[in-house]
User: Fold these one by one.
Assistant:
Number 1:
Amino acid sequence: MNFLVGLGIWGLLLGVLIEAVSLPFPAALFILIYGYILQPSPLEIILYSLAVSVFYVMVSFIPYWLSIKYETDIRRKLSKKKQQKFDRWTEKYGDWTITLGRILGMGYIAYLGGFCSIKPARYGMLTFLGVLPVSITMFYLGSIGNLAALKEGFNNVQWVINGLLLTTTVSYVLFKLLKRKPALAKVKQKDNR
């Protein structure tokens, strides 16, 4: 914590920068911690949130432009399933997928903006609208909160998410193994004949 205090506002911006370039990093947690460190007034919460949101938008144009420039290369590396998921989200929610993705903390949503040829101004606005409410909420919770209680809450949520991921992974592997077993039995039957 002392390290973050020493970094000041630059630490906050560094955390936001890392997530905005689509690296898996919890910028919302950084904002929460800096809400605790800075203890902003209600007006400062709004001002910090606006500044963080504008900075996030500016930095998020890096993966946006990369997705336009290298779309074919990136699409080749994406599985068909992920591409279809992107397409379904866009068909279902339109451009607002960008905002929803930002609220849910999906940094890689910037690539969707580039793939779907969303105009830069619209992409920036949708990103801003997704990041701003999260920033306000996290600065507010950090400013009022007992950081230990908030951290414990995040840890509990993380345990639940990890438990769900583990359960899903184990279920998937078991499903694949059980699905494969009858196919192997048929092959063995043919070999015995």
Note: The chain has a mean pLDDT of 77.
Number 2:
Amino acid sequence: MNRFFFILVSILAFFPLSGCKDKRPNPDLEKFVVKNVIHPSNNPFNEDKVELGKILYFDPRLSYKEDVSCASCHNSASPSEGFPRNKIHNSAPSLTNVALYKDVFKDPEAIELEDIVKEKVHSSLVLRDEAKTVQRLSSIQGYRELFNRAFGTPEITLDRIVLSLSTFQRTIVSKNSSFDRFVMGEETALTPAQIRGWNIFQNKAKCVQCHHGPNFSDSELHATGLPGIKDKVRTPTLRDVSKKKLFMHNGAFGSLEDTVNHFAEGGHAKGLRDPLLKPAELSDQDKKDLIEFLKALEGEPIQWEIPSIPKA
């Protein structure tokens, strides 16, 4: 366990939510609150770049066969679609709060979100012919106008595509949840059941060992005790988890109840299990309260209107 974890647990032990009576923000728990996302100096924020990135995100013409967009797979309500199951069999990770992860797709060398986006866009499954894709987009007047507004010139390059997609993805942020408002001093933001659930989350269930920080994720790789799964997976955010319809990286469970039961049992006996994954003695009421707390991590609605795609 790292130094940060020990500091975190110490803070939680001294500042349980059940004891928060003051309407002022709790400075020690504020580190759990999602604040403004920082955009890097080599890819500064501007609204035109966000709009361009959103359009590219929904445009299937970015893919090799022009039939799969980023949004086709990165939707937390459904497992991966668009690629043969022998190629991608996992439930595509949610991109909610993706800017808060230390690394996104198991790549310890990729530090910036731009590195990850470029690797995925340029991968053999997504964009096998960079020149062809750039040429395809460059032939569309609407795209030339969009790139001109975002970058000052109409030139379309892979780097500009990556910068736009990354800027847009940094705006996919879940924040101002009931939990956030409670921490910031709104006493009635959490119900008694949710406060009990928080205490279970950090103590009896020990969820906080992996799910901590503003994103409720340590960004590390862990084995989650699923049978037949040999790979470790990155700890997912718990922000907006109550909105999901499928859970675990392979969509193994269809409800929060099943997912909580899996972890309370310490994972499946035949599954690869992280040393931190141990059975927790949770009553039925404990589990209900824990799920109620997870619902308190649901942020303000993220707008997902499909944009108008430039016509060829």
Note: The chain has two domains: 3-18+175-295, 47-169.
